[in-house]
TrEMBL record:
Residue ranges of every copy of the Autophagy-related protein domain listed in the record: 67-190
CDD domains documented for this protein: Atg16_CCD, WD40
Name the record gives this protein: Autophagy-related protein 16 domain-containing protein
Lineage, highest ranks first: Eukaryota, Viridiplantae, Streptophyta, Embryophyta, Tracheophyta
Pfam families: ATG16 (PF08614), WD40 (PF00400)
PANTHER family in alphabetical order: AUTOPHAGY PROTEIN 16-LIKE, AUTOPHAGY-RELATED 16, ISOFORM F
Positions of WD repeats: 243-284, 327-369, 378-410, 411-446, 499-531
InterPro entries: ATG16 (IPR045160), Autophagy-rel_prot_16_dom (IPR013923), WD40/YVTN_repeat-like_dom_sf (IPR015943), WD40_PAC1 (IPR020472), WD40_repeat_CS (IPR019775), WD40_repeat_dom_sf (IPR036322), WD40_rpt (IPR001680)
Amino acid sequence: REGEPRRVKSKLVIMDTCIYEKWSPDELANAAIKHALKALRKRHFLEEGAHSPAIVALSKPLASHGSEWKEKAENLELELQQCYKAQSRLSEQLVVEVAECRTFKTLVEEKEKVISELQQELNQSREECSPLKESLDEKIKGLDLMISENQALKAQLEEVTLKAKNAETENKMLIDRWMLQKMQDAERLNEANALYEELMGRLKANGIEQLARQQVDGVVRRFEAGAENFVGSTIPTTCNHKIPAHEGGCGSILFEHNSDKLISGGQDRTVKIWDTNTGLLSSTLYGCLGSVLDLAVTHDNRSIIAASSSNNLYLWEVGTGRIRHTLTGHTDKVCSVDVSKISSRYVVSAGYDRTIKVWDLQRGYCINTIISHSNCNALCFSADGQTICSGHVDGNLRLWDVKSGRLISEVAAHSNAVTSISLSGNGNIVLTSGRDNLHNLFDMRSFEVCGTLRANGNRLASNWSRSCISMDDNYVAAGSADGAIYIWSRLRADMVSTLREHTAPVLACSWSGLGSPLATADKNGSICIWT
């Protein structure tokens, strides 16, 4: 029978375990706590019952020691209470740990759920990325194919471009050869026409026409302002003075009206006034911020206007040497300027911004702007001051109305850029020079060519090479790239003299209104005075 209580206990544990399997975790925890407390009480009662006979047996022979044993019993009872307290604390810790375990278990379940969801999303993303990856591979293959095709097309384009350049070069060579042949044919035809006209003129006139024109011009000028100073122009032969005028080159020279004083402008940004009788410098005007490309002087000789590469025009008072106006408005270099023949109040200028501007010097600002599709290299006012004659890079000569800015007439003057325009003394003829190395005379009334001057060695040096016509309209002077100055007779249309003194290309010529002297300027900045 010693094993029966143990078997009963085992059956109870098995029954309890079966019951506990049906409970929730919280119920299991509470049942475990109750079971532990019940076991502790039962053990206490068992221990108390086991010790009670011994205590009774011992209390009889040891009655004399009752107080001592009582004290020990109290101590044991106190220790027993402390054991109960320790047991209570352990029970509380067990409850807390069970709660924490439950919480941790809940968190673990949540984490496992989240991990499961993430795993599903990952699998889904992999399934979605699979077709995208296939598509990307196909596009990469297509891109490689396009790159290879593009390289093949690029090679073909380079080959075609090279062929086009070669064809363009051959075409340009053929055009140049054709143009050269045409120019040679035209020169031969012009020479034949000139020879024919010369022979007919000698047969018919024998010099009487030339004498009559000179007498008429002299009579007309005696009724004009400054007629007391008028003399017929003579063919210059001698260089009286060679002046080192400007550093870097001199591109513009101009005589004062009815005076032998010469005005020059150069690359050194100065304007200088010279006494042509002595070759000495009279005064220097400062303040220009760029190279001087063209000059004009008012009819009273009190003001000088300079066109500059700084996009501005500068107006000086000759008496004080101070700048009176700085005319701004052009957006590129100003290459030509002129003053009205009627009033010194109005000035016209041309810039490389494809504009022609009319300025009022009394007000000091622009009063009209004319826009042209081709840049203008040279211009001048007509004798009546109502129109502007301009020569352009496209080789055309254009006539504009000053007030309205309307284009009145246009003619193809040269096969290349026009470099110079010079109005005759009576205002009926305008001289134009071009990069085709021709010098054409136009009748301002009909705007038709009335003469063409040329020379075999005459080659203009730049787009702003300035030629000139004498005051009596009998002679034309033009500089050349070889340093020579060629002089033609306008009436006979033949060359009468070649002057050589310059060692650099001649850029500008100017004939005094008194008939003499002739001034020329070259690319080295030297000025020669010819009589």
